[in-house]
């Protein structure tokens, strides 16, 4: 069984399994068959950039079966990645839409949709071995972009457990750190709340992504 098969077949977190089976499907998606399983990473595993998000949205990745696909967060993120040259198309609507990532792989700290988009620490720890293996598979990795504080904490937990000093590494939008040969970039999560309140501005985010692109190609 390969890594993606292991992820899809994982049932370690009863709360998450129960949630995706029992939560009511909105009327606008009635009749649609939801993926309702863990969601794997996607993209070029031999790329130089790893992007880590929080978890699949119930009506996004949990519905479509692909990370950052079919919801407002993905609309914002993929269009910005496209402007920075990381995708071949500016939208992510379904698993068969032809989207590909250029020189990057995107994954999640938690592979299952959590209630209220808030995972428990034990659930994140259960998922951590999957993220570790994804990082290990990225043999050309030069930079990691974390989307939000939970993704940031998950990545730093991995570094800390490897004995890497992270004492002075703090989360903040558009900050970056050079840690153990890998540059860590931090951004707010592209959630509708962050976008609608102006905490995450499209033009600034695109500029930040272009800076990342320039760095990994330097």
Automatic annotation (TrEMBL):
<dbReference type="GO" id="GO:0051539">
    <property type="term" value="F:4 iron, 4 sulfur cluster binding"/>
</dbReference>
<keyword id="KW-0408">Iron</keyword>
<keyword id="KW-0004">4Fe-4S</keyword>
<feature type="domain" description="Uracil-DNA glycosylase-like">
    <location>
        <begin position="40"/>
        <end position="209"/>
    </location>
</feature>
<dbReference type="Pfam" id="PF03167">
    <property type="entry name" value="UDG"/>
</dbReference>
<keyword id="KW-0479">Metal-binding</keyword>
<dbReference type="InterPro" id="IPR044147">
    <property type="entry name" value="UdgB-like"/>
</dbReference>
<keyword id="KW-0234">DNA repair</keyword>
<dbReference type="GO" id="GO:0006284">
    <property type="term" value="P:base-excision repair"/>
</dbReference>
<dbReference type="GO" id="GO:0033958">
    <property type="term" value="F:DNA-deoxyinosine glycosylase activity"/>
</dbReference>
<protein>
    <recommendedName>
        <fullName>Type-5 uracil-DNA glycosylase</fullName>
    </recommendedName>
</protein>
<keyword id="KW-0411">Iron-sulfur</keyword>
<keyword id="KW-0227">DNA damage</keyword>
<dbReference type="GO" id="GO:0004844">
    <property type="term" value="F:uracil DNA N-glycosylase activity"/>
</dbReference>
<dbReference type="InterPro" id="IPR051536">
    <property type="entry name" value="UDG_Type-4/5"/>
</dbReference>
<dbReference type="GO" id="GO:0046872">
    <property type="term" value="F:metal ion binding"/>
</dbReference>
<keyword id="KW-0378">Hydrolase</keyword>
<dbReference type="InterPro" id="IPR036895">
    <property type="entry name" value="Uracil-DNA_glycosylase-like_sf"/>
</dbReference>
<comment type="similarity">
    <text>Belongs to the uracil-DNA glycosylase (UDG) superfamily. Type 5 (UDGb) family.</text>
</comment>
<dbReference type="InterPro" id="IPR005122">
    <property type="entry name" value="Uracil-DNA_glycosylase-like"/>
</dbReference>
């Amino acid at each position: 069984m390969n890594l993606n098969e292991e992820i899809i077949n994982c049932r370690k977190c009863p709360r998450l399994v129960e949630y995706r089976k029992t939560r009511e499907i909105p009327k606008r998606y009635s009749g649609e068959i939801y993926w309702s399983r863990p969601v794997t990473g996607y993209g070029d595993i031999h790329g130089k950039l790893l992007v880590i998000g929080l978890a699949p949205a119930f009506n996004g990745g949990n519905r479509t079966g692909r990370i950052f696909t079919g919801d407002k967060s993905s609309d914002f993120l993929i269009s910005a990645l496209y402007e920075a040259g990381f995708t071949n198309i500016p939208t992510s609507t379904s698993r068969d839409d032809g989207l590909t990532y250029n020189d990057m792989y995107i994954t999640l700290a938690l592979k299952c949709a959590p209630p209220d988009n808030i995972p428990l620490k034990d659930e994140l720890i259960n998922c951590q071995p999957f993220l570790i293996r994804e990082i290990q598979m990225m043999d050309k990795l030069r930079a990691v972009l974390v989307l939000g504080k939970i993704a940031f904490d998950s990545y730093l937990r991995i570094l800390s457990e490897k004995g890497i000093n992270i004492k002075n590494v703090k989360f903040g939008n558009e900050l970056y750190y050079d840690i153990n040969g890998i540059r860590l970039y931090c951004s707010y999560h592209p959630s509708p709340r962050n976008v609608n309140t102006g905490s995450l501005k499209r033009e600034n985010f695109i500029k930040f992504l272009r800076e990342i692109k320039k760095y990994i190609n330097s």
